[in-house]
Specification:
The chain starts with a strand and ends with a strand. It is built from eight helices and 15 strands. The chain is an alpha+beta fold. Strands 7-8-6-1-15 form a five-stranded mixed sheet, with helices on one face. The protein has a four-stranded antiparallel sheet with strand order 2-5-9-10. Helix 2 packs across helix 3 and helix 5 runs antiparallel to helix 6. The structure holds ligand DP6. Ligand DP6 binds next to helix 2 and helix 4.
């Protein structure tokens, strides 16, 4: 096998991953839980090569030059993957070096981080060179590039298990329920993009400077358990309460870290208030959640979808994007 292709998609967390116990190995400080989306898609092609190289292409197939930081991150990931495969005794079949092509269908304007989709697709491709890897191994390889990428290896509802200790595979993802378990939607409202925010990698490293972080770590096991129960019971109200509680708590940690990280814009807060009102007025199964940026994800069930979509489309100066639940990274 010399060329391996794979596709993957982003995921949206309901219990957020924020903060590591080991920054270098991207070992999270706590468990997290997400829904894998069915779009937008990122495709990667990995080819054996003499020397490491990486190229990236936009949704319209135009080449986008990678920054030095992005290239270094991709190369560092490749090297740590080799190291991991060595520890499990599979490097003999793995290429000495590779050339990567990353084709992202994620429009720049929707402001969704592509790292989860990119590193899960890469993990899937790397795994294609090594026949006997488990899905858990693939999620570990994805995590070594981007923590949340480990969750996009699986479809449906996915937990990232923090684990213990500092070995490379101490933390991994596992599926809680498949994509057809519960038909939910994510309507994403992206307020017009402002200046570049602090990236997640830099943000994770600041989590411990927040006086609220220790309390957050104590609360997460209960929230994770409640979230899993809500998903298994398809109890939307329970899911909404715990997901919103965790989202607001993560943003409180971010805002109280040094330096303070404020990712939510005034428009974000306005949308959150509107959605609370809309939910109360029309008794809709809809919840909001936000990551390290001003975009608001409105997760809703099929009955609520038309109203949520109509609300989103009526927002001025926002980009709207819609996704269903996806099946995770796959080789093609
Ligand atoms: C706020 O996985 O993007 O979206 O490992 O540095 O790539 P890196 O971090 P990343 O962190 C995700 C942060 C979050 C919450 C979440 O998705 O759980």
């Amino acid at each position: 096998m010399t060329v391996v292709r794979a596709v993957s998609t982003p995921n949206i967390a309901l219990i957020k991953y924020w903060g590591n116990r080991n920054e270098e190995l991207r070992l999270p400080a706590a468990d997290s839980l997400s829904i894998t989306l069915d779009q937008p898609i990122v495709e990667v092609v990995v080819d054996q090569a003499e020397q490491f190289s990486a190229r990236s292409f936009d949704p319209d197939s135009a080449e986008r030059a990678l920054t030095d930081k992005e290239s270094k991150r991709l190369e560092k990931h490749f090297l740590v993957v080799k190291k991991y495969l060595d520890t499990i005794g599979t490097t003999d079949v793995f290429p000495a070096s590779v050339s990567l092509e990353i084709r992202s269908k994620i429009p720049e304007s929707i402001g969704l981080a592509s790292s989860a989709a990119v590193f899960s697709a890469l993990a899937e491709s790397y795994a294609g060179f090594v026949a006997q890897l488990s899905r858990r191994d693939v999620s570990v390889i994805a995590r070594l590039g981007s923590g949340s990428a480990s969750r996009s290896v699986f479809g449906g509802f996915v937990a990232m298990i923090a684990g213990e200790g500092n070995v490379l595979d101490a933390s991994y993802a596992e599926q809680i329920a498949p994509e057809d378990h519960w038909k939910l939607w994510d309507v994403i409202i992206v307020p017009s993009l402002n200046e570049k925010e602090t990236g997640s990698t830099e943000g994770h490293a600041l989590a411990r400077t927040s006086p609220l972080f220790e309390t957050r770590l104590r609360e997460i096991p209960r929230r994770q358990k409640t979230c899993i129960e809500a998903i298994m019971q398809k109890d939307f109200e329970k899911l909404q309460k715990v997901a919103e509680e965790d989202c607001l708590d993560m943003h409180a940690v971010m805002a109280s870290s040094t330096p303070s990280l404020r990712y939510l814009s005034e428009e974000t807060h306005r949308i959150i208030r509107d959605v609370e009102e809309l939910r109360a007025r029309e008794h809709l199964a809809v919840l909001y959640t936000t990551d390290a940026g001003p975009a608001v994800h409105l997760i809703c069930d099929e009955l609520a979808l038309l109203s949520v979509r109509a609300y989103a489309n009526a927002r001025q100066n926002c980009t709207i994007f819609e996704a269903g639940i996806g099946s995770g990274s796959q080789r093609i």
